[in-house]
Design goal:
single chain; about 425 residues; mainly alpha; 4 strands
Length: about 425
């Protein structure tokens, strides 16, 4: 509550200043000219009730939007991820545009770099596993044989008849639930198709966000009233700036996590350390869940190839890397980029995971960063990686040539700014 209260309070005071004056005037009015409920109600109760019903309406709108977004999750989630991609690649797109690249070409090159980077990481993982496949199979087979011998000769003293009974029970369970297993496989196939469709939607939307972002911002500016645009546009600019800073910082943190895990695997003697770097880098974009997944897969790889002792050491390495991320990298990089308190990050991830599972965990911190940036943008404070925290005097802008009066706003806040859709005035 304190984090949100401090930046918002000055605006609540300024926006509602005339309301306080009106209420004071009501108290000074002749009691005969006002109704008993207004005359006898304390002003603090009237202010609280006024804020209360507005919050109720706002919560109702949020619930409706959430339900619609949940029903259309196969559309909304790709669009939100596309916004993150556009936020990360908008500097490169603008840089190419400044060197006289066509907007569509610079947007396409940015997305192709992303696709080639992801495919390259997956290719590295696949190639390294393929090159070590025979050794992995041999090591896994010997490991299973050693485990079985330990079960027979170790302190558990398990007999061959018990093992055969467990195998028969597992076989009977598979036969009993074979229809459910077939249904699960069919559902998995459908989810794979939905994932591919969502991926194509995400890439297509990211391309148009990069290419036509300023036109979209100008279109919204034309339909929003002047007095609303004065307040909304700085908030949108601040939110977008914070979101772009978060994406860049998140990529840096994920790269450092991957390198740290790879160095640990290399020190242990694993031949799959490059694959561990790529896998950790990809998983690090999903907070908490991604780290647990990467640590589990890496520990299994080390367990199969190097034994249980080094697998435990690999888990310790991941714990150390995650602690360095939480206590050093996130405060240094994410904190400097978007100025979000670690407690707020933890609460956002928890709420996102409870509400929407893995997509919620992935989008929780960007959502918190965007909201925090909007609050600061309303105050005219923006986060800049080069100059730090600064108070900006917003320039005046005319959207699409429709506005003749000067509006204290700034250029386009959506990726693709500088395309000539808004005219800045002194």
């Amino acid at each position: 509550m304190i984090v949100c209260y401090v930046p918002i309070y000055p605006y609540a005071e300024r926006i509602d200043h005339h309301r306080w004056e009106d209420m004071s005037a009501i108290e000074q009015t002749d009691p005969q000219s006002v109704s008993d409920d207004i005359a006898l109600t304390p002003i603090w109760l009237r202010v609280t009730a006024s804020w209360g019903w507005r919050l109720i309406v706002l919560c109702g709108v949020m619930v409706i939007v959430w339900n619609i977004g949940t029903k259309l999750s196969q559309l909304t989630v790709p669009l939100l991820i596309a916004l993150l991609i556009a936020a990360g690649f908008s500097p490169l797109t603008d840089f190419l545009g400044q060197h006289r690249w066509p907007r569509w070409a610079s947007s396409a090159v940015s997305l192709l770099l992303l696709v080639f980077a992801v495919l390259g990481l997956l290719a590295i993982v696949g190639a390294q596993i393929a090159s070590q496949w025979d050794e992995l199979v041999s090591t896994a087979t010997s490991g299973v044989s050693s485990l079985i011998n330990w079960l027979f000769t170790g302190p558990l003293n398990i007999s061959q008849e018990q093992v055969n009974g467990w195998i028969n029970q597992a076989t009977s369970l598979v036969r009993q639930y074979q229809s459910q297993i077939a249904g699960a496989l069919t559902s998995a196939g459908g989810r794979i198709g939905a994932f591919v469709a969502g991926l194509l939607t995400c890439l297509t939307a990211a391309f148009f966000f990069l290419k036509d972002g300023s036109r979209m911002a100008a279109a919204f500016g034309k339909v929003i009233p002047d007095h609303v645009l004065v307040k909304v546009e700085p908030m949108a600019r601040g939110g977008w700036t914070a979101l772009a800073s978060y994406v860049r910082a998140a990529v840096t943190v994920a790269a450092i996590d991957g390198v740290g895990a790879g160095i640990g695997a290399l020190a242990l003697g694993s031949n799959l350390w490059v694959a561990i770097i790529a896998m950790t880098f990809i998983c690090s974009f999903v907070p908490i869940i991604g780290a647990i997944t990467a640590a589990t897969l890496s520990a299994v790889v080390v367990l199969v190839t190097l034994g249980p002792v080094k697998a435990v050491i690999m888990v310790v390495v991941f714990i150390a890397v995650m602690n360095i991320e939480a206590n050093v990298l996130q405060p240094l990089l994410l904190g400097r980029a978007v100025e979000i308190h670690p407690l707020l990050i933890l609460l956002g991830i928890t709420a996102g995971t409870i509400l929407a599972g893995i997509p919620g965990a992935l989008l929780a911190i960007p959502a918190v960063a965007f909201v925090t940036g909007c609050v600061r943008g309303a105050e005219g404070i923006f986060i800049d990686d080069d100059r730090g925290r600064r108070k900006a005097h917003l320039p005046r802008v005319r959207y699409g040539g429709r506005r003749t009066g000067k509006t204290p706003t700034s250029p386009s806040t959506i990726p693709g700014e500088g395309e000539g859709q808004s005219t800045i005035e002194s």
